[in-house]
């Protein structure tokens, strides 16, 4: 089968896109042909940005798949106006990329942004093939919850776009049952909504080597490492993490690692400086293997979301943490799917967001109980192997591809 995947980020991007990359490789390994339409790498990947500079379209091959990159990227990712403009420009850019790609039997679009899904729908109608929408976050509600979208007109436009895409997609894949129920309440036909969680390629974790390598290289042997690794943007409750580090500064062996990039990174560094704390280290975005080694080397890993972020998101970092066999502390809305997974798996602790004292207490609980950390880590790994493997999720997509294409024959 010939499959076209449309996704906003793709390797060598290191902040996102690895799920689609892993899915594409898995599909290739069992005989399918896969092509990708994606954006140019972001500006912090200097050598790749230079390679694509001045281009509107660039073709390359990665791991046996054709990759078509479209651009340009708007220059300031931390500027909300620029990001909004890029959001709507993606429709034209991705439609253009899809039109110059080879013909496919099915199109898989990853959202957000919804404009990529809209481009996929138009392309599917032109090519007369089915389109599957994979939803990572439900927009525009997530943007409204965070206070990033206040214009009534834009809310109306995005709601119309959302309803159109849900109606026209041949199939919709969501990450959890709560996502599915949310779509059903919006009038989406239940028969067209399937649940396939995010995944992690277990082979990546098995090949990481010794977990103390990162500690030794960074002078952290003997320290208790608390790590947040991922995007540093508005939805994340990272100011609370910095406040918690301040509250625990008297414990000289508790070290916080904030790994990643995003529009909030500079503000967090400035906050740490003003508080005068020295137990927080900021590391840049890491390649996938290095990122997983940091997770493996940590004693506790954090999943963090603000209390206003009420969409039922399951961050992929949670699965990475579980795959690496590390206990989790989640300061996230307690009614979401993340606490349910953690409580069911018995792999960590959950506290309400934006409460640095509660977060500090949870960290101290695990700091003082090595046996609890060990048991939670083992539970995390076992639950991951049973529920979030790449192989099982890939088979789910393959089944959906076969069902939608058979209806179009």
Note down, in words, how this protein is organized.
With 409 residues, the protein is an alpha/beta fold. It folds into two domains: 2-199 and 389-408, 3-Layer(aba) Sandwich (Rossmann fold), CATH 3.40.50; 202-387, Glycogen Phosphorylase B (Rossmann fold), CATH 3.40.50.2000. Helices cover 47% and strands 17% of the residues. The protein contains 17 helices and 14 strands. The protein has helices at 18-29, 46-52, 80-99, 114-127, 141-145, 152-168, 177-185, 202-206, 213-217, 238-247, 265-275, 288-297, 316-323, 337-345, 356-367, 370-387, 390-408, and strands at 2-6, 33-39, 57-62, 65-70, 106-111, 131-135, 171-174, 193-195, 224-229, 254-259, 280-283, 300-304, 328-331, 348-351. Strands 3-4-2-1-5-6-7-8 form an eight-stranded mixed β-sheet, sandwiched between helices. A six-stranded parallel β-sheet has the order 11-10-9-12-13-14, with helices on both faces. Helix 13 (316-323) crosses helix 16. The longest helix has 20 residues, at 80-99. The mean pLDDT is 86.
CATH superfamily of the largest domain: Glycogen Phosphorylase B
Q: Hey, roughly how much beta strand do the residues contain?
A: 15-25%
CATH topological fold name of the largest domain:
Rossmann fold
Q: What's the total helix number?
A: 17
Kindly state the mean pLDDT as a whole number?
A: 86
Structurally, how many domains make up the residues? 2
Which percent range fits the helix content? 40-55%
Largest sheet, spatial ordering of strands: 3-4-2-1-5-6-7-8
Quote the distance from N terminus to C terminus: 13 Å
């Amino acid at each position: 089968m010939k499959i076209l995947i449309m996704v906003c980020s793709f390797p060598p991007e290191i902040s996102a896109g690895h799920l689609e990359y892993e899915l594409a490789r898995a599909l290739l390994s069992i005989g399918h042909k896969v092509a990708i339409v994606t954006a140019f790498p972001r500006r912090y990947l200097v050598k790749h940005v230079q390679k694509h500079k001045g281009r509107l379209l660039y073709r390359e091959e990665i791991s046996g798949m054709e990759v078509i990159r479209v651009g340009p990227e708007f220059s300031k990712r931390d500027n909300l106006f620029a990001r909004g403009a890029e959001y709507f420009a993606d429709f034209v850019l991705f439609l253009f990329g899809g039109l110059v790609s080879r013909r496919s039997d099915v199109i898989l679009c990853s959202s957000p942004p919804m404009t990529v899904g809209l481009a996929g729908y138009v392309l599917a109608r032109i090519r007369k093939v089915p389109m599957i929408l994979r939803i990572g976050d439900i927009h525009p509600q997530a943007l409204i919850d965070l206070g990033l979208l206040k214009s009534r007109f834009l809310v109306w436009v995005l709601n119309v776009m959302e309803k159109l895409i849900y109606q026209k997609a041949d199939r919709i894949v969501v990450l959890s049952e709560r996502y599915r129920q949310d779509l059903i309440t919006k009038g989406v036909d239940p028969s067209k909504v399937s649940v396939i969680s995010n995944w992690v390629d277990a082979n990546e974790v098995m090949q990481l080597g010794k977990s103390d390598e990162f500690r030794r290289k960074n002078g952290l042997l003997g320290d208790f490492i608390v790590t947040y690794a991922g995007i540093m943007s508005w939805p994340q409750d990272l100011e609370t993490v910095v406040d918690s580090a301040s509250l625990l500064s008297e414990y000289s062996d508790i070290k916080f690692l904030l790994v990643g990039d995003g529009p909030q990174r500079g503000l967090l560094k400035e906050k740490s400086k003003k508080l005068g704390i020295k137990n927080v280290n900021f590391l840049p975005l890491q390649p996938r293997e290095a990122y997983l080694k940091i997770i493996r080397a940590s004693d506790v890993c954090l999943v963090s979301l603000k209390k206003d972020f009420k969409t039922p998101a399951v961050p992929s970092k949670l699965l990475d943490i579980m795959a690496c066999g590390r206990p989790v502390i989640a300061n996230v809305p307690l009614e979401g799917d993340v606490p349910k997974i953690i409580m069911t798996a018995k792999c960590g602790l959950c506290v309400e967001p934006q409460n640095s004292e509660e977060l500090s207490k949870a960290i101290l609980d695990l700091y003082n109980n090595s046996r609890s950390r060990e048991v939670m880590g083992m539970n995390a790994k076992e639950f991951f192997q049973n529920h979030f493997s790449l192989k099982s999720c890939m088979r789910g997509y393959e089944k959906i591809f076969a069902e939608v294409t058979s209806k179009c024959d």
